[in-house]
From TrEMBL:
Protein name: Uncharacterized protein
Domain of life per record: Bacteria
Pfam families cross-referenced by the UniProt entry: BrnT_toxin
Length: 121
């Protein structure tokens, strides 16, 4: 069984000029290649209309190159991953329940997210 590991460090600046940074939190996530993906069909159609991206494309998401962080904007525990699909970075909002990745949102990364991905240690 192939296993992908996605690791993300959240840094917080300690000074006004950002010269001193420390590790604030580390999230270690293992996604196994045999995990299933699920989503709400109405949400998938809404995502296609809003972002032009079908949730089915998430199967090509490259977990081994992804940066993953927790999301604070929901009542349920969610994660946000930035990673490539082919040659383009995408943002995946998801939750994990047992061996299922539940897709909430999937879209192309914006310029700010691309820069953050490229400058992360």
């Amino acid at each position: 069984m192939e296993q992908f590991q996605a690791m993300y460090w959240v840094h917080r600046s300690m000074g006004d000029h950002g010269a001193s940074k420390r590790l604030d939190r580390c999230l270690l996530l293992y996604i196994q290649s045999d995990m299933r993906y699920e989503w709400d069909e109405a949400k998938r159609l809404s995502n296609v209309e809003k972002h032009g991206i079908d949730f089915a494309l998430v199967r090509a998401f490259e977990w081994d190159a992804a940066q993953v962080m927790s999301s604070r904007s929901s009542n349920e525990p969610r994660l946000v991953a930035i990673g490539p699909v082919g040659r383009r970075l995408h943002v995946l909002v998801f939750s994990i329940e047992r061996r299922v990745v539940r897709v909430v949102s999937f879209r192309k990364a914006n310029r700010r997210e691309v820069i953050r991905y490229a400058t992360q240690d």
